[in-house]
Amino acid sequence: MIKPHKTAPPPKPLTQDGERLSKRVAHLMRCSRREAEQYIEGGWVSVNGRVVEEPMARVTDQSVVVDPHASLMAQLDVTLLLHKPPGFETMAALGEANKRVKPAHQLLLPANHWPQDPAGVRLLKHHFAKLSACVPLELAASGLVVFTQDWRVLRKLTEDAAFMEHELVVEVAGEVAPDILQRLNAGLSSDGQPLPPVRVSINSTSDTSTRLRFALKGAHPGLIAYLCERVGLHIQSIKRQRVGRVALSGLPEGQWRYLHEGERF
Fold first, then answer.
1. Separation of alpha carbons 241 and 213, rounded Å
2. Model-level pTM greater than 0.90?
């Protein structure tokens, strides 16, 4: 099981004396204090050669440099895609962490950023603030989960939840007979009520197990386990590969990447 990296202690203030970094940058750039804060939070300001992203940091005689390519374009809200390992709670908040609850959110650390992330986004501290978990996934399952600062993404995944297709690979013990596949695809009911429809096909087989591809609209935690139990299949693992049009692709377990500009759910 992948364990979360221990969070490094926050850097100590540069000094308790002097003036706020935002005030120094405002003077250097001849701009407002709010604009200075945006430069700093955007990762454009270094103090003695080290990037500092806290506008409230205090400086005295240190060298403060603003990157010549600094831009005051609005800082875009980001969406982070995590390959959740089994055993982590998708929807739990960081404040709920204890011996029994391991929020998936705690894996969203700079150290867990996928080195091959194709998004090309500059990693900043504020990208880890005010993130909302969007789509539930079973505790025992692995796969794609979504955290976002972007209200448009949150609204899309919330309002269209019932219509968003999810693709999961479910490994079960042994062979899966054609009649079992037929029963799953024909639809089952519970207490006289039809269960959400699923499309099931064989993804791959081995001597001891079969991988099934499930496609269904909406998250429906627990549904796949219930369906497999009804037809006598023993689940060995569940991995969510896709939510809408966004896929897990090559993202390693326990790592995260940015949703890039061309991706849409």
1. 10
2. no
